[in-house]
Amino acid sequence: MRTTDVVVIGSGFGGLAAAKQLAKSEVETVLISATPEHLFQPLLYQVATGVLSADEIAPPIADVLADKESVSVMHGRVTAVDAAAKVLTVETDQGDEQVRYESLIVAAGANQGYFGHDEWADRTFSLKTLDDAVALRAHLLDCFTTQTDEAAHTFVVVGGGATGVEVAGQIRELGARYFTDAPAKVYLVEGAGDLLPVYGGRLSTFTRKTLEKAGVDVLTDTFVTDIETDSVTVRSVDGQQRVLDARTVVWSAGVKATPLAGVIAEATGCETDRAGRLLINPDLTVGGCADVFAIGDMTSLNNYPGQSPVAMQQGRHAADMVRGATPRGTAFRYLDKGSMAVVNRHNAVVDAPFGIKLTGILGWFTWLGVHLFYLVGFRNRVGAVVSWCRSFLGTARPGFDEVVTVPVDAMAVGEDDHGEAQTTAA
Ligand SMILES: Cc1cc2nc3c(=O)[nH]c(=O)nc-3n(C[C@H](O)[C@H](O)[C@H](O)COP(=O)(O)OP(=O)(O)OC[C@H]3O[C@@H](n4cnc5c(N)ncnc54)[C@H](O)[C@@H]3O)c2cc1C
């Protein structure tokens, strides 16, 4: 059995921040992740719409941590945790392995939630993993370049949060600027009364007006009630029902914790909320276990948003307690540095501290700068700048060059994996 001081589970924002912080004290750490890359989720929609290539937002986690000698990386999925014995089981390509730890930091993220309609997972595209983005990219290219009927050129995006707004804006631009022979009809469906409801006020109004001006049909106060292969049924709060003939539905409306949250809850006696997220203690420990920490999207604490800064700050806080830089039991406090979302080319909204609110091109350049700063790896930053110039100044979509096989058929109801048969990324 392998033994180590600390196990970090997950190579996303929380896991990477924790591992880097632990490396400052050279604490022996094993980072275990089900996916081999560090995925920059906020840019998944740009991979899906051909702006960026897949590897520009997903460097291998082993490369990212290569200079941290006290950290080793293990590729595998944690399936069981014995909190009393401090041993966990990892499913790897070579079979099950066990790892004993002194402290455990879990950052296993979240999956898409479907509000009790899990069958919609097979009828929609989601954007949580790199495979999701690659599958949607191949499907969009297929719709725009090989299919001619109206349903293939009609796209319904469900969820008016940042991801939904960004995806709707970009798909509309694909039809307006790139595949001009095949214009796209795009609906953005949101249950609340406005887009980006957490921003509110003039940022929400600007977002709606900008998208509508670009040609997106914004349906607020509206819920999806049924999804079939070629149609989506929606109903507004005043009871009006509409059937939209569309072959593509991008689902970005709900969140639920990954299955590992249930495993940790059972192992530690921690309670969960309705989305299955762990109701962690103020010091980020889980249940009654002083040596098990959970952070990021798989947890719920003080209504902090499911955003990367929360996961990163929590990762550093947990790591600091483990390495003794912060006393154990110290409550975590989130420092909110603001939120932002791209609406479309040259338009973004920024909700910054001290009441600063930016819109339009100023917001867009702020968004570009911040994302460039946080994108991991010098090569990726350079690559992203080149791709952004080609996409936003010119009319290229370099990411589509990666799609080497495109099927004629769009996704079918009941398919397990829309991506597998459709595409291969170079
Ligand atoms: C499309 C999209 C757009 C977003 N845009 C923004 C944005 O603009 N701004 C912002 O701040 N936030 C944004 N977010 C949210 C942000 O990405 C998350 O808050 C952040 O990724 C959470 O980090 P995490 O470490 O908790 O989980 P993740 O980054 O999701 O990482 C989870 C990790 O756990 C691993 N894992 C899962 N289960 C297991 C297991 N059983 N065993 C081993 N490993 C496992 C996964 O492989 C992965 O490496 C966006 C999210 C999405 C999906």
From TrEMBL:
Keyword list, A-Z: FAD, Flavoprotein, Oxidoreductase
Enzyme Commission number(s): 1.6.5.-
Q: Where is the External alternative NADH-ubiquinone oxidoreductase-like C-terminal domain?
A: 337-393
Q: Which GO terms describe its molecular function?
A: oxidoreductase activity
Q: List, separated by semicolons, the cofactors it needs.
A: FAD
User: What sequence ranges are listed for the domain FAD/NAD(P)-binding?
Assistant: 5-315
In its keyword annotation, does this UniProt entry include Phosphoprotein?
Answer: no
Query: InterPro entries, per this entry?
Result: FAD/NAD-bd_sf, FAD/NAD-binding_dom, NADH-Q_oxidoreductase, NDH2-like_C
Family as reported in the entry's similarity comment: Belongs to the NADH dehydrogenase family.
What is the recorded name of this protein? NAD(P)/FAD-dependent oxidoreductase
